[in-house]
């Protein structure tokens, strides 16, 4: 009788997702285990019918892992409560959260199993037909010119940046198709005193290397692709004893002065030696990362100041600044004194107070310091790259650029994103998104009024970097899409995960390492998260609580969407390798001098983001170095300060037949020092549309009129019940005359979609991911992603 009841229950689960409201199972764990058996049975049947079950294998793996994890969490509630307590958002609820977590995880396992069972039923019944999964070849994927290639196809490798410390790289419970299998030396390697492999401690005072520590790098198996990171957090005591100034002008993640000769000597030797030892190793296929989120905020009152970032500067930095000023002013101290309202007798006498007062914003001293600050940082990274390329000339390089230093207003951080992206052989960053309202009350969450998640920072960063270097591989080496110090949601949406990973890949992301995986295979948290936590890094201590390490549905969905992106990689590449006909003119000069430059730029960018065409940027360098025919129109907005060289380049663009929309007579009206410019742009051989104090609405209307003939042949009408749009669309015409269409809805409401062709010809539409026919009018759910073929 017991067996019959259990069988009846299983049939009800499979067919009706339960008969009645009362479950036949005593516990969620029993139910999850029964559904695992059900899925395994369906997978066996699917295999006999030659149906690919790679997606179900991932669901099965995460289900079994998280059942094990839930058991550990249940047996160690005190430890889990402590981990919740390290995140101030959860601290007051730590005990109740630890109590509920095990069954929460088991219920989420049931949720992902239900979806897999339903999907496989549909395929077995012929309701859908999915393309077999194209896996990443972790052993043989290669970096090509502007994408990774695996098994002859474009490939998007994925993994977790900070993977469970202490586990061997060959442990298949941690390195596999489900969690990703990118090897790396850096965050993963962990001598107790200094837990990074490539760091300042590799070099001893006598000039020899610490060979035991070096083994952490050289012992990485040469089997899987990976990356290496230069971790510059600390500096040895012997170096500090020799050079008392070596920590002056340090930053949050760079623990020494980048202008210090001894620091440079140490790092030059380390970079050369490690570059030699790792030359042509698979662990470098995704490049060498020169820094973790570099920034040197040098303004008074910035939050980084409490972490001793740029509390002062060294004599080396000051002397280099004096030399820079002498060159900038052609040796004319009177010109500097006029600008600075100072009375220095010569350049050697120049002084500056750092951190600098933000009240000086827009004044010549402010510009000179911040422009020099960017130049010195770029020179530091050029030194790094030159040292590496001296011994390893084909080494790929990138920097984990901190996105906020681009899309926020402050420019006291010393980071010239354009120069650094031009410098390195790959694009590098750690773009992020907020999947729901911020958990920090001081963080603005106004985006939630229109959109389901905060997408703007990730999007504008990608469009800028891809405009600067359109033919480089784009690596997000610490993707904060799942959680961060600003947000997390234990019951996060799988639809959000699919949408944000899909969108970022569509916009250029070629590889990503998520933040973060910290479970050992037995379910316990990794070594660094055991015992009393006291990290200098403000982000790590509370990172475990509410993260994907507690979310089977989220961890599974990350892999599911990456499996799909790799399976449809050729379509994704076609969609994203399109011209960017509409460009925004970006000026670092105005960004430095204008208090709200990026705030206003972001608003204009967002207003045009949903119009169905890829957006881009131009700068002086982009106009001079790239084929101007790859875009149609340049918009100049809120850009009062430009150098004479920037102005001349814009005029040359017009003289060569380009189109410029100028928002007002204020734009381009001053040089970098606020001196009025007598010249004004003229049409030349091109088209100059000079508006009068135009607002964003007028600029948008004018810009769209100029690129009307660049719009795709497929007309996409969307109605979400609001005055603003939330559907992102991309269209590309294929060689056979059909159209590839990608739709993503990032609004709260279901959107009504209508598809048609400009020609008025009748069309047939297919959902590429299910092989099902689609009507020309349909509903696009909140956060839904569709990949369509139109004939």
TrEMBL record:
This is Beta-galactosidase. SUPFAM superfamilies: (Trans)glycosidases. InterPro entries: Class_I_gatase-like, GH, Glyco_hydro_42. One of its GO terms (biological process) is carbohydrate metabolic process. It comes from the Bacteria. GO terms for molecular function: beta-galactosidase activity. CDD domains: A4_beta-galactosidase_middle_domain.
């Amino acid at each position: 009788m017991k067996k019959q009841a259990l069988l009846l229950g299983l049939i009800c689960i499979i067919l009706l997702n339960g008969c009645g409201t009362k479950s036949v199972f005593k516990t969620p764990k029993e139910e999850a285990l029964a559904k695992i058996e059900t899925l395994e049975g369906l997978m066996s049947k699917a295999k006999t019918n030659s149906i690919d079950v790679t997606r179900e294998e991932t669901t099965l793996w995460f289900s079994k892992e998280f059942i094990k994890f839930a058991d550990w969490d249940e047996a160690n509630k005190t430890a889990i409560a402590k981990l919740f307590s390290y995140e101030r958002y959860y601290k007051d609820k730590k005990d109740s959260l630890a109590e509920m977590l095990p069954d929460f995880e088991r219920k989420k396992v049931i949720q992902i199993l239900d979806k897999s069972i339903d999907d496989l039923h549909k395929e077995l019944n012929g309701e859908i037909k999915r393309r077999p999964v194209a896996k990443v070849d972790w052993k043989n994927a290669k970096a090509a010119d502007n994408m990774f290639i695996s098994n002859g196809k474009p490939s998007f490798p994925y993994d977790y940046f900070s993977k469970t410390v202490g586990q061997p790289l060959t442990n298949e419970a941690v390195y596999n198709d489900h969690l990703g299998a990118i090897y790396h030396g850096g965050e993963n390697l962990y001598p107790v005193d200094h837990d990074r492999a490539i760091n300042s401690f590799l070099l001893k005072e006598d000039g020899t290397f610490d060979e035991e520590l070096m083994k952490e790098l050289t012992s990485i198996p040469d089997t899987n692709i990976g990356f290496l990171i230069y971790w510059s957090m600390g500096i040895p005591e012997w170096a500090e004893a020799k050079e008392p100034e070596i920590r002056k002008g340090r930053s949050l993640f760079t623990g020494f002065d980048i202008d210090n000769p001894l620091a440079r000597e140490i790092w030059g030797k380390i970079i050369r030696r490690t570059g030699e030892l790792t030359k042509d190793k698979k662990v470098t296929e995704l490049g060498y990362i020169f820094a973790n989120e570099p920034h040197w905020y040098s303004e008074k009152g910035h939050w980084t100041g409490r972490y001793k970032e740029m509390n002062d500067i060294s004599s080396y930095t000051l002397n280099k600044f004096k030399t820079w000023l002498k060159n900038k002013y052609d040796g004319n101290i009177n010109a500097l004194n006029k600008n600075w309202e100072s009375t220095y007798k010569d350049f050697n006498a120049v002084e500056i107070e750092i951190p600098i007062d933000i009240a000086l914003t827009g004044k010549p001293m402010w510009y000179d310091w911040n422009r020099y600050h960017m130049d010195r940082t770029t020179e530091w990274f050029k030194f790094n790259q030159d040292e590496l390329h001296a011994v390893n000339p084909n080494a790929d390089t990138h920097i984990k650029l901190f996105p906020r230093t681009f899309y926020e207003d402050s420019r006291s951080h010393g980071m010239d994103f354009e120069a650094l992206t031009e410098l390195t052989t790959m694009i590098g960053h750690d773009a992020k998104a907020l999947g729901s309202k911020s958990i920090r009350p001081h963080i603005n969450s106004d985006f939630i009024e229109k959109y389901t998640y905060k997408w703007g920072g990730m999007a504008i960063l990608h469009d800028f970097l891809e405009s600067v270097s359109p033919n480089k591989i784009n690596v997000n080496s610490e993707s904060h899409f799942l959680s961060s110090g600003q947000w997390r949601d234990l019951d996060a949406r799988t639809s959000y995960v699919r949408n944000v990973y899909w969108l970022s890949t569509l916009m250029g992301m070629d590889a990503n390492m998520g933040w973060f995986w910290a479970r050992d295979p037995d379910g316990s948290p990794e070594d660094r998260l055991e015992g009393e936590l006291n990290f200098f890094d403000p982000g790590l201590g509370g990172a475990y609580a509410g993260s994907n390490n507690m979310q089977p549905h989220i961890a599974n969905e990350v892999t599911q969407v990456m499996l799909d992106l790799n399976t449809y990689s050729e379509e994704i590449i076609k969609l994203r390798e399109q011209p960017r006909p509409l460009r925004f003119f970006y000026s670092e000069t105005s960004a430095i001098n204008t208090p709200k430059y990026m705030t206003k730029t972001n608003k204009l960018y967002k207003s045009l983001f949903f119009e169905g065409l890829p957006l881009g940027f131009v700068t002086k360098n982009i106009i001079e170095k790239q084929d101007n025919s790859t875009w149609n129109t340049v918009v100049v907005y809120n850009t009062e300060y430009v150098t004479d060289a920037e102005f001349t380049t814009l005029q040359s663009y017009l003289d060569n037949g380009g189109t410029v929309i100028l928002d007002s007579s204020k734009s381009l009206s001053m040089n970098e020092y606020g001196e009025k410019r007598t010249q004004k742009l003229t049409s030349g051989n091109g088209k100059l549309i000079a508006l009068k104090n135009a607002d964003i609405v007028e600029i948008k209307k004018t810009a769209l009129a100029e690129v009307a003939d660049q719009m795709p042949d497929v007309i996409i009408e969307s109605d979400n019940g609001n005055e603003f749009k939330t559907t992102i669309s991309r269209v590309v015409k294929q060689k056979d005359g059909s159209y590839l269409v990608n739709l993503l809805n990032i609004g709260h409401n279901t959107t009504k979609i209508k598809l048609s062709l400009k020609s008025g010809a009748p069309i047939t539409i297919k959902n590429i991911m299910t092989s099902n026919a689609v009507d020309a009018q349909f509903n696009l759910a909140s956060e839904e992603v569709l990949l369509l073929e139109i004939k």
